[in-house]
């Protein structure tokens, strides 16, 4: 996410979390997650281009299976990819991780086809962009591709999230965007509006109250 969109306290907390993960200081990392509810186990260093989550760092360190299990219990997503397109399992394999670690980090298979995932990703991004602009957020970004400022939930990992749902925090949008995978389609809730997103596009089903 573009740093200029984040409050200073969020940037500071995010760097502390990333520092702990990069150092392999798992007690400190879990203490931070417990102490600061706004932190996500799936976030990477604020403003960093590598997109390395704590699970990627655990894979790089060859962390004990107990640490990886604790990250997974807190909602770490095995299917999230870094900027190279690598999952945590890919990182562990590259680092010579054990067979037990590789098995633990193997993402579950998505029930969606690759083609449907690509289409839903595009339609989801379009729908979120529209919500952001409709409610008048991100002044100064209206002429830019919002995807350079925000990274939206990838459809490919929704099936492994709790209740098949992810929350996308967007500065200035109370409640952010909740994205839920249904049976072959998506449902989003943002700004009091509910949308159904299919491979054909997005349909507003519930209008927000001004």
From TrEMBL:
ANK repeat positions: 50-83
TM region positions: none
Domain of life according to the entry: Bacteria
SUPFAM superfamilies for this protein: Ankyrin repeat (SSF48403)
Coiled-coil spans in chain: none
UniProt-listed InterPro entries: Ankyrin_rpt, Ankyrin_rpt-contain_sf
Keyword annotations from UniProtKB, A to Z: ANK repeat
Protein name (record): Ankyrin repeat domain-containing protein
Organism: Mycobacterium novum
Native organism taxonomy: Bacteria, Bacillati, Actinomycetota, Actinomycetes, Mycobacteriales
């Amino acid at each position: 996410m573009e740093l200029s969109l984040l409050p200073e306290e969020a940037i500071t907390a995010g760097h502390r979390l990333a520092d702990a993960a990069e150092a392999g200081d798992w007690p400190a990392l879990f203490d931070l997650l417990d102490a600061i509810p706004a932190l996500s186990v799936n976030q990477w260093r604020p403003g960093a281009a590598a997109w390395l989550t704590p699970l990627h760092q655990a894979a790089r360190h060859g962390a004990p299976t107990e640490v990886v299990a604790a990250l997974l219990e807190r909602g770490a997503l095995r299917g999230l990819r870094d900027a190279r397109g690598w999952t945590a399992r890919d990182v562990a394999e590259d680092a010579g991780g054990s067979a037990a670690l590789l098995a633990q980090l193997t993402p579950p298979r998505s029930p969606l086809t690759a083609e449907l995932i690509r289409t839903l990703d595009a339609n989801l991004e379009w729908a979120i962009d529209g919500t952001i602009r409709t409610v008048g957020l991100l002044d100064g970004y209206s002429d830019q591709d919002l995807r350079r400022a925000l990274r939206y939930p990838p459809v490919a990992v929704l099936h492994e999230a709790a209740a098949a749902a992810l929350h996308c925090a967007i500065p200035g949008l109370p409640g952010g965007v909740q994205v839920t995978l249904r049976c072959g389609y998506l449902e989003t809730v943002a700004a009091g509006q509910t949308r159904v997103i299919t491979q054909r596009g997005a349909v507003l089903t519930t209008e927000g109250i001004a």
